Structure formats: C-alpha cells, structure tokens
Amino acid sequence: MIALISLFIASFLAPEVSAVIGTDFNCTSYNGTSFVYTPAAVACSNVISDSSCAVIYAAANTLYPAAGNDAQRSYACYTTATATPAALVTDMKAAAIANCPKTCGYCCQTDAYNCRNADFPRLNCATVTLSQCNSPAWRTIIAQDCPASCGFCLTGGCVDAVTNCGNDLSICRTVGMESFVNTYCQKTCNRCPSSTTFASSGTVTTTVTSTCTSYIADSSTNCAAWSRNGFCTNTFYTLAQRRARCATTCRLC
C-alpha cells in the first residue's frame, strides 16, 4: 500500500511531458481545438538524408511533424532546452531549416515555400495537393497564383508544365518540338516570356526582358493590380489579350 501511494505521489510530482506543439507556431494553423501542422510544414524534402535528420532531430514524443497532427518538434530543432516552455534559439532553428526542414516541420519557412500567394488566385491555395503540384494541368497556374503551396517561390512564376524536361536538354533545340517546348518546358528551355520574383518578405518584383522602346497604352486602369497578381505572365490569358489590356505594364511589344 505504501509503495502504491509512493508511486502515485511520484507520478503526480513528475514534470508533465508535452505532446503538443509549443514555443514556435510557424507552419501551423488552429483547427478549433489545437495547433496542427499545415501541409506546407512538411511539403519539402530534407537537404540531408531523412535517416540523418532522425538522428540529429530525434522525435520528442515518438511522432514527427505531419500535416494535420500536433506532434511536438524535437527540441533540437529550435532550442537548447530539454523541456517546455523553452526559449527559441534562432541559430538552431536556422540550422534545422537549412538541413532538415521536413523533419522539424519547417518547410513553409524555406526560401522555396516562404512567399506570398496571389491575392486573388484562381484556386484555393490552402487545398493544393502534391498531385496538383506535379500536374501539367495545374503546375503553371500554381506557380503564378499559389507558389508557396508547391515550393515555387524561387521560380519567378514560371515552371515547366511537365517535370521531366530537364532529362534531355536537346529537346530545347529539336526541330519540330518548338510548340511542345514553348508550352511544357518554358523554364528548362528559357522560354518564359518574363519573370516574376516572389521575395520572402512578400513583395513582388516583375522583371521583363524586351527589345521594345515604347508600348501601346494600357486600356485598363487595373493593370498595376493585375500585374501583382501574375496577369502579365499568366498563360491562362493569350498574349493578345494581355497586350490589348496592359501592354505598357506588362512590357509587351
């Protein structure tokens, strides 16, 4: 009886082990009950091997971050502490993002994922799936409207519609393949009409290369806003449509 009472007291006084996300809530969202990881938290790949990351960043409570769960990050991902509450150590977090972002649930803070999506996207960026990220039907639209959902932040709004263009670079110069290349391999074959860079700060900088010295006037007063949302590089609209409405803003001859 005494032993049982002692065990109860010891368990009562023992520090509580937290099984939920704490200290750093980046790459999470509140589901009405608790903070859980967003799909973008684990959408990337680790820079070093997954097995190495598992050793360096051993799971705090057997589970690793995954979309929709609230597994506590390994303390080593963000702090020198061994229990919560813990102070965030920025250098440790930076190292985790640079080497093992998926294991630590920090993909959304890598350069490829850390940018602003379009204000008025043609699809719901929060519901973009991995299959859409790799789909010829969706990739170019996602790169322009939802770059943070698929890790397209560094592509300048232009990606190959198919993922294997880089397997054979000779396709860029093959006679008879021009139409295919211009449609499906714009990034690899340097056929992007312009480039839009989404910076991590959330700003959008558009750089357009052209030989024109003058342009016809914009016919719409909305061109500046449309340009920020990707209109100038959006292949959903034809070149003629973009030129007719926003030739000056989009720098289209």
TrEMBL record:
Keywords in alphabetical order = Disulfide bond, Signal
Which pairs of positions does the record mark as disulfide bonds?
Answer: C158-C192
On whether Signal is a keyword of this UniProt record, the answer is: yes
Checking InterPro entries in the record gives: ShKT_dom
Ranges for domain ShKT come to 107-153, 158-192, 212-253
Q: Which domain of life is it from?
A: Eukaryota
Q: Which Pfam families match?
A: ShK
Q: What is this protein called?
A: ShKT domain-containing protein
Annotated organism of origin:
Caenorhabditis remanei (Caenorhabditis vulgaris)
Q: How far does the signal peptide extend, from start to end residue?
A: 1-19
